[in-house]
Amino acid sequence: MKTEADSLKKIQIWKLKKLGFLKEYWAAGSLKWTYRSSGEESSVGINVMLSESERYLRIYYTQTDEDGNKKDFDYKIPITSTPCYFGGYRYWFTCPWYANKIYCGRRAGVLYKAGNYFACRHCYNLSYASKNQSRNKFSLILDPLFKRDEIAEKKYNLRVKFWKGKPTKRYMKLEEKEWRVMRRIYLSGQLLNKLGS
Ligand SMILES: [Zn+2]
Description:
Bound molecules: zinc ion
Structural class: alpha+beta
Largest sheet: 6 strands, antiparallel
Oligomer: single chain
Number of strands: 13
Strand content: 35-45%
Order of helices and strands: HEHEEEEEEEEEEHHEEH
Helix content: 25-40%
């Protein structure tokens, strides 16, 4: 259980922006995750295309299944944008997930690794719910993790974080919220360990 939460891979659009992937119309690179519990690393290759006619994140990686068979994945996640109040654009992923042959297409700032593919939190929850009867146990740890990502994004998007050397009220509020969520994550981890999952 702890490893599940530990190894929750995700791609945040604001992080791609921070890493400079959204500056030009074309960018290439890779994203890497390290599992806290095992120290194991995994990575994916990415291309970002932001031209007039095409906007997407291309993602490619190789995965080994339980039988040791390697499988290559290579797909595009469409990127959309909405105008910002203070000018410029805010970018979003369009969730590429197909659940029961129905295309999701939701606008999302974060995509999580659900099974073999990256998908939005709704799809991620759904795929977990169908695989695991004990949905509540999972939401106990997943919900605060989703919440933490939401707060991190809000913090990043705050236009004014400091004013005359002091943190703004909004920033302070988000800091407090973040602290409470971190505590929830910690406590739910403790609880799950106690339950022996
Ligand atoms: Zn989705």
